[in-house]
Amino acid sequence: MRYRRRGLDIASHALLILALIAFCLPVWLAITAATHDQASLYTGTAPLWFGSEGLDNFRAVLTEPVGRLGTDVTRLLLNSTVMALGIALGKIAIAILAAYAIVFFRFPLRRLCFWLIFITLMLPVEVRIMPTYKVAADLGLLNSYVGLILPLIASATATFLFRQFYLTVPPELLEAARVDGAGPWRFLKDILLPLSTTNIAALFVIMFLYGWNQYLWPLLITTESDHMTIVVSLKRLLSSADNLVPWQTVMATALLAMLPPVAVIVLMQRYFVKGLVDAEK
Amino acid sequence: MATFQRHRVTPWLLLAPQLAVVAIFFFWPAAQAMLQAFYVEDPFGLGRTFVAFENFARVLASAEYYRALGITVTFSAGVALGAMALALLLAVLADRVIKGAGAYKALLIWPYAVAPAVAGVLWGFMLDPELGLISAGLGALDIDWNHQLNGGQAMALVVMASIWKQMSYNFVFFLAGLQAIPRSLLEAAAIDGAGPWRRFWTITFPLLSPTSFFLLVMNSVYAFFETFGTIDATTAGGPGGATRTLVYKVFEDGFIGYDLGSSAAQSVLLMGLVGLLTLLQFRYLERRVQY
Amino acid sequence: MPRLYAGALTLGMAAAGLSLSAHGATEIAWWHAMGGELGNKVDEIAADFNASQDDYVVEPSFRGNYSETMTGAIAAFRAGEAPAIVQIYEVGTATMMNAEGAIVPVHELMSESGQDVDPGAFLPAVTGYYTDADGRMLSMPFNSSTPVVYVNRDILDEAGVDAVPTTWQGLGETLGRIVDSGAAECGMTTTWPSWIQLENFSARNDLPFATEQNGFGGLEARLSIDDTAAVDHIQRLADWQQDGRFDYGGRFDDAAPAFYTGRCAMLMASSASLAGVRANAEDFDFSVAPLPYDSDLVDTPQNSIIGGASLWVLAGKSDEVYQGVARFFDYLSSAEVQADWHQFSGYLPITQAAYELGQQQGFYEQNPGSAVAIEQMTGVTPTANSKGLRLGNMPQIRDVIEEQLERIFNGDVSAQDGLSEAVRRGNALLERFQQANG
């Protein structure tokens, strides 16, 4: 390794650590603000160190109804969890089946089905927000978990990724299964799914994050607090009519909104990175 | 590819759930948008008038639409280029210090998990005119920060919050791309007397170009759509419309103005625009799949 | 078999379009946008009404902010699941009243159910906003507010100012003294910029905001704010923004914290902010003053106009439900209920009787500043310019205006150019509304 230089290495570390600090700063300020009471927050600039409240603000938002929201944050976390899990599992389930049909079967209209499904990759829900809202309203899905989940399952990202993966499965596997007299369902259950576990885990991480962090769709279709998600609730907390913005409450809620997805990404980082890089191939 | 033959019904059973969801929540709304774009309708749906292409003509004749288009381009370019340049810089540094690259990756990856709206709130707090730490620092430098009045500052705020969230995604890809570059190439160049700077521009950078192109597409899509939450939670399209992107305008006209026809026409125009973008991305993906 | 029989009966009733609660009373859904404390008060009002009789049960339900509540109600109407009563903010008035077939005008509802309404009992400056050209009520005013000035007395004392000026001319001098003396870095700020500095400035100084009597005369109305003295007023604020006498603090009520923290000496805000100001202005004495007028334009000011929201009745319900709604509105406009709501919230009472009741109770003596808004609304007869606004697409028009105000105050454009642009875009929205509803 002749071309390495010590001085550059030290400078690199220094810059990287500086970047790390800069990236953590917004979260650090959120944590410190969440441990203050409103009066001490408003005495000047946002504090860099903890205040007197400890975890009281967190306890308060989790156990007592937050003004303007009409419910406590525990309920919002539950709603977000239901939505994120529903989207992740729903997407993965329909994608496994649809990709299986497209890769391992030959049937009339196969190309057409392929295109019908993959054209959805082109148009995120944000583009067709009004008409989708209308459809959900016509089906009576406003303020319901089904309404939160189903429309967001409609895009075919997961189907596309499973198709890519199935195409790499060695054909000998299928031949062997056929010689053993295995039908399509048994092949899927006993051979394909066990092979896909890593992919499923990777996709689960990505889709869970996608679902949890949704904003526009939940904002529109939930008008009651019993189906509101935690990410959407922040906007309502910020628009505090005639009052000082209760930053300590906003920040406690924002941190709680970050916690589950950040935990998922940190704990399942290996799968996440694999899923990302696979998605590119 | 070996396949199952002689199964008539099975593939349709397998496809049924996906096709049903796509039909109800994708094709039906898309068709409705197409249809709605040719009508003027009152909010309550009591009556509608067919106006042919008038909605489109009105949108395409309005200065605000082009302004929103320009803002979308500025915003997207700022986010995509900013998040990529920063990620590339950090990835090159992390790649240099072979020991610890993994640790930096682990420590830098988490902002990707933060919701765009939450990222907006965190940055909004740091730059809050009353309490913000950074706005106080800028004030000390005689820079008067007020993103509720100054459009440029509001734009800077949403761009920074969006970059903060997106950087780690790019970092992962650039690092993977850098680590795939054969060390022997760089060593040979070093023996020939090329310094780090020249090695980067003549070897590393060209070899990263496929990754860069892929990331450019992904970052543009992110900036275009996923940042709605960032904008809505911090600037709500203001001040003076300085952060009103095309997607924000569709939402505003449809849900605040109840102008269903215009909103639908804008949706259709967006679909065309995004269709083009995605076609690029798709062809690119398909091409990469071939080898 | 009694249980089966009861079940069959309920089914039959439901089929006949009656919704019955457990004890056989008709249920009336009421969607509103009153969060937090005000929401609890709304629940309390409904509970008191429900306890006062056995035939009807009003069920309030919080639906987010004004815009979300209106969008939700429209979507629900299209899906056939609309509530009987919905609270709509004042800028949604034209949209609602032009939705014939979607709404039941309040005057019709009241006369058909035999509740006689005496128009003279109401404060004209409050109900005028929600009446048609013949003076008949279209919706029930519920929470109406009007702009007033909140003043930080400590800063005024420090700057050596005694009285709060009643004119913009006097205010300019006073704010100059405050800023020059260093008592505060910012003279005044304002919430709801379009509502207070343009809509109310025009009414108070008897200037037209739009043609066709501000839209009361029909859908042909077009904005006129770029060729009245309102332009000079906005230019005045833009100049003050440069020297610190004015500091723009954002839309809605985002500007309030600048007053609470003592950075700005005065705040122009809704009369309904009184409770918020009282709760947050802990470190200083404050007082309430009427909205200033421009002595170059009028000798005596006109009444200001209202904001807030009113209750609309949606179509497609059974006669029983409408009977109940009429009963509930009658209850709602009684002096006791009105006085209680007004005293609790800072919103205006809608009847003369409620105001008088408050006077008898000595409420205004015990609560300085609480009568300023009412006095500003009464004592003058509303003119065509001060009755209110009745413009289609007003939520968007307000957005357009605020957008242009931001550009003016930021120094991007002059007041004249900025407001001309607002008129151009606003008129396009008015034309569009005319096209969809004409």
TrEMBL record, chain A:
NCBIfam families: PRK10973.1
Pfam families to which the protein is assigned, alphabetical: BPD_transp_1 (PF00528)
Listed Gene3D superfamilies: MetI-like (1.10.3720.10)
Keyword ATP-binding listed: no
PANTHER family: ABC TRANSPORTER PERMEASE PROTEIN MG189-RELATED-RELATED, SN-GLYCEROL-3-PHOSPHATE TRANSPORT SYSTEM PERMEASE PROTEIN UGPE
Compartment list: Cell inner membrane; Cell membrane
Quaternary structure and partners: The complex is composed of two ATP-binding proteins (UgpC), two transmembrane proteins (UgpA and UgpE) and a solute-binding protein (UgpB).
Stretches assigned to the ABC transmembrane type-1 domain: 77-268
Alphabetical UniProt keywords: Cell inner membrane, Cell membrane, Membrane, Transmembrane, Transmembrane helix, Transport
Transmembrane regions listed in the UniProt entry: 82-105, 112-130, 142-162, 191-212, 245-267
Topology of this chain in the membrane: Multi-pass membrane protein
Source organism (scientific name): Halomonas halophila
Function: Part of the ABC transporter complex UgpBAEC involved in sn-glycerol-3-phosphate (G3P) import. Probably responsible for the translocation of the substrate across the membrane.
Domain of life from the UniProt record: Bacteria
CDD domains in the record: TM_PBP2
Similarity field: Belongs to the binding-protein-dependent transport system permease family.
UniProt name for this protein: sn-glycerol-3-phosphate transport system permease protein UgpE
PROSITE patterns, alphabetized: ABC_TM1
Keyword Transmembrane: yes
UniProtKB/TrEMBL annotation, chain B:
Domain called ABC transmembrane type-1: residue spans: 69-281
Claim: Membrane is one of the keywords in the record: yes
Coiled coil region boundaries: none
Membrane topology: Multi-pass membrane protein
Localization per record: Cell inner membrane; Cell membrane
Subunit and partners: The complex is composed of two ATP-binding proteins (UgpC), two transmembrane proteins (UgpA and UgpE) and a solute-binding protein (UgpB).
Family statement: Belongs to the binding-protein-dependent transport system permease family. UgpAE subfamily.
Name of the molecule in the record: sn-glycerol-3-phosphate transport system permease protein UgpA
Species per Swiss-Prot/TrEMBL record: Halomonas halophila
Lineage: Bacteria, Pseudomonadati, Pseudomonadota, Gammaproteobacteria, Oceanospirillales
TrEMBL record, chain C:
Keyword vocabulary terms for this entry: Signal, Transport
Compartments, record wording: Periplasm
Natural source organism: Halomonas halophila
Broad class of where this protein is predominantly found: periplasm
Quaternary assembly: The complex is composed of two ATP-binding proteins (UgpC), two transmembrane proteins (UgpA and UgpE) and a solute-binding protein (UgpB).
Protein name: sn-glycerol-3-phosphate-binding periplasmic protein UgpB
Family stated for the protein in its record: Belongs to the bacterial solute-binding protein 1 family.
Pfam families: SBP_bac_8
Taxonomy, superkingdom: Bacteria
Keyword Signal part of the UniProt annotation: yes
Annotated signal sequence range: 1-24
